[in-house]
Hints:
Chain A is mostly helical and 317 residues long. Chain A contains eleven helices and no strands.
Amino acid sequence: MNETVMVLIRTFGILAALLSVGGLLIWLERRLLALWQERYGPNRVGPFGLLQVVVDMVKVLFKEDWVPPFADRPVFVVAPAIIVIVTLLSFAVVPFAPGLAVIDLNIGLLFFLGMSSLGVYSVALAGWASGSKYSLIGGLRSSAQMLAYEVFMGLSLMGVVMQAGSFDLARIVEAQQDTWFIVPQFFGFIVFLIAGIAETHRLPFDLPEAESELVAGFHSEYSGLKFGLFFLGEYLGITLISSLVAVLFLGGWQGPWLPPLAWYLAKTFLFIALFILIRATLPRPRYDQLMAFGWKVCLPVALLNLLATGAFVLLKG
Amino acid sequence: MLSILKSLWTVLVTMFRKRVTIQYPEERPYLPPRWRGRIILSRDPDGKERCVACHLCSAACPVDCIALQAAEDETGRRYPAFFRINFSRCIFCGYCEEACPTYAIQLTPDFEMGEYLRKNLVYEKENLLISGQGKYHGYSFYRVAGLAVGGKDKGEAQNEEKPVDVKSLLP
Lengths: 317, 171
């Protein structure tokens, strides 16, 4: 009985924390982007403009929730929910601190890869169901991009799995007691980071929603709360990829002096900030450049990294 | 690859630079004296209206936002019977100021003219007239113009010779 209550508290606590982080990231991104462009960003509503989140939420909630007559209605409605649900489900396996995870799954990493692949359906179905050519192009691009980048996202993580000897994320963190995997798995880290940016379709890999050519890509036809869900999904995705980079390559909760949760949060925040910095800096590549980079650079690097790690693990015995 | 890292670094160190935003209602931007803002009508050093109702400003105005009617007082001095500027049309180009021969119409560094009603943007003469001389001090058109006007005859203006009887110049 007591155990069940604890699990419930933990689950809903993590859920509430994640949803508020997803909201706060809107504010954080705008402030950081402004900081890197010599501006202030939203700083009027509340202390440091923090209540901007609330104001934005109210605005999104009260907007007209419109479904275009030419849209495929059921799919159109379901699509934005998919990305939020699968991203939140992925968080179930992330260990925030020792014992602080929704579930200690022994195939945690596979679960994450599966869930993040399901996220493609959200974008592809939204593009298809919108019944607009821009949305469809966005959805198609997104499917191709995900197919390409999903491949070496998984491959880049296999080195970590080989060294840790487990798919369980908590085991992987414990295996980084002495050296963080960013040192032996540096190329894996780089490839995973790039694939992660592509996976969350953030800039510079945001071709599915390229504003300048596709209006807003797959979410052109969305408004109100459904649009808000896509936004939430994107920010949750950033948090998820940042958490995973921290957990898989930077030793998760490991670190001296500070409590484990603080270390985890600090490392995750570092990568969230990096995501935003990359958005502030890099222009969007052409579509063929994106695909060429994926198949001709990242995939070979991931494969070579896998080979080298395999050899290393074999030699070590 | 290196160029990407370099640009990331460049953007990152931007955070230590001074921000260009001016936080408007608290901080005010510096507006130079010749900034083209709200239009006023100035007075001459004697405190009389400088405007002589020549219609040059309304002719120069590209959006036709100036309307006025000329009148003349008992001394022969011209003045506008009404002078109206519709600021909802005005584009603050400053052509009226350039056209004005008497420095009467001037643009000032004031841009805070927001109104809730559009018709409140139509300024009449009493809204436009200021009590001072604006940007050009000590200038009075009737003192330098060779025109007979109340109390001042021909040849009595500044830097003006007495009129010559042309018939006396005949050989």
